[in-house]
Amino acid sequence: MRLLALATAIALTSGIAQAADSPAEAQALDIAKRAIAFRSVAGPGNQTPQLAAYLKTQLVAGGFKDEDVTITPVDDTAYLIARYPGKNAKAKPLVISGHIDVVEAKPADWQRDPFTAVVENGYLYGRGATDMKLDAAIVIAALVELKRQGFVPARDIILEFSGDEETAMKTSALIAEQLKNAELVINIDGGGGALDEKTGKPLYLTWQGAEKTYADFQLSVTNAGGHSSAPRKDNAIVQLSRALERIGAYQFTPELNDLTRGYFTSAAKYEDAATGAAMRAFAANPADKTAIATLTANPSMVGQIGTTCVATMVNGGHALNALPQRATANINCRIFPGHQPAAIMAELQKVAAEPAVRFKDVTEGAVPNDASPLRADFVTAVTKAMAPIYPGVPIFPGMSAGASDSMWFRYHHVPSYGASPVFIKGSDNFSHGLNERTPVANIAPALQYYRSLFTSLSK
């Protein structure tokens, strides 16, 4: 299996000077396999602190001073911060951001034990193979190799791994508060490349410069209730239902920013003809009704054209033979950058048009954040890092509809960019799902990419 993986790596990375079976590559794969074995899942038996301790041993063995790698316990988890000292301690640091916790995985549902790493047919299998223990391992190996080569950055490089990114993001917030003086953040848990489904060749790489703000709004109606044999018009369930129906039919005004315009323009040719035409038309005119209708009907595109809000939970009544005294629902919103949750909630109240329905922001573990600027130094560094690995492969920006640790840095007005170099087929993306896997052929080119990127941006 190892020979097949190496052959795939050589074919995929066509012409890379570094040998595919370098010590750094072997180290990255070994760290990833060992990291997957830790059940770093929130709740009883959470092994995130133990995983952080293991990763510290790898950093210290690779040249980091023991005192420069700290592990901070938080509830049942922990976070790690490692400092790679630069020449100018007063310069704002370059931060490399990731997380080492994973979502739950039940072994009975998987074809293989999710917490026993397996390399098979050129893939690394296991929970975290994609999100994101392999990326973490590659970055550690890349930094250790830079240490081994004697590289001294002009500014400090800070590597940080949060311990609850998949759940409460408490450690994520603490880290961002601690590192809010950063020059910029490279989030290795965002962006990435797409492989052609038929040929397996790289199609394009996207870097993430924005993500939508997460928000939960609780809708509630209360009234006196009473006996079901004597119904009244002020029925809490009916009133709430009318509000939910109106919200469900509502579409926020579609909009663009520089990142999404660049994405639609560049990615259109990789979609089917109708979707691609709609993407180009929307990029040219975000009021194009035909384009909006096409993109709205596509689940992978509707989140890219504006704010979305959807009912996710509902509860009402207290007895089968009584009028409901209370009915509640949750509306989950993913808010387009540039808008505050309070403004979106106010817009939903107008749409609901039910005076009896009360709205409350019940969001936990999220803060509003705007898009990061299109920094020329970052774009240049990514382009430079990718050029010798995948010559001619297009690189363009994107926006995530989900949430990552970048949110907390952007909240503090620190530019943060998802910049993972891992390429994967859409059909192979099982992040958060069953039988998670990632091609091991990514390791060698990713090491070269990260070394170049960190060197360029730490000057």
UniProtKB/TrEMBL annotation:
The keyword Chloroplast does not apply. InterPro entries: Bact_exopeptidase_dim_dom, Pept_M20A, Peptidase_M20, Peptidase_M20_dimer. This is M20/M25/M40 family metallo-hydrolase. Belongs to the peptidase M20A family. The keyword Protease applies. It comes from Sphingomonas hylomeconis. Residues 210-357 form the Peptidase M20 dimerisation domain. Residues 1-19 form the signal peptide. Keywords: Hydrolase, Metal-binding, Protease, Signal, Zinc. NCBIfam families: PRK09133.1.
